[in-house]
Amino acid sequence: MSGVTLILRTVQFEQSSYVLMAEASTELDKLVRSMKANSHWHIHIAGHIDNVGDPRLNLALSVHWAKVVATYLTRRGIVDERITTDGFGSSQPIGDNTTEGERSKNRRVAITIR
């Protein structure tokens, strides 16, 4: 499973903030269980955002998104040595940013299992 990247679809944040929305807990709790069951897993958490707004602020926001997810995991017993984080702002879009539907695809947190 090493090298697999997964987008955490339900891990969303309140607009222009790094406050997790309530529905994120289901998917994050599943990740916690998977990491506890696979103690050899190390993960890289990447925050991504759309291209609306100031690029510097968006980069900072994406960094915080990744860190918030990492904190969620460590508070539930995953040691922080198993987690790295990064924020990419809007530099790695998966949608074209021309419509809200496409921009929403770019607002995401992804994990890569190492």
TrEMBL record:
Q: Identify the species of origin.
A: Spirosoma liriopis
Q: Which segments constitute the OmpA-like domain?
A: 1-114
SUPFAM superfamilies named in the record: OmpA-like
InterPro entries, alphabetized: Bact_OuterMem_StrucFunc (IPR050330), OMP_bac (IPR006664), OmpA-like (IPR006665), OmpA-like_sf (IPR036737)
Q: What is this protein called?
A: OmpA family protein
Chief subcellular location equals membrane
Read off the Gene3D superfamilies from this record: OmpA-like domain
Stored Pfam families: OmpA
Which lineage is the organism of this entry classified under, starting from the top rank?
A: Bacteria, Pseudomonadati, Bacteroidota, Cytophagia, Cytophagales
- Give the UniProt subcellular location, in the record's own words: Cell outer membrane
Coiled coil feature spans: none
Q: Which PROSITE patterns match?
A: OMPA_2
Keywords from the UniProt entry: Cell outer membrane, Membrane
The source's domain of life comes to Bacteria
The record's annotation in CDD domains points to: OmpA_C-like (cd07185)
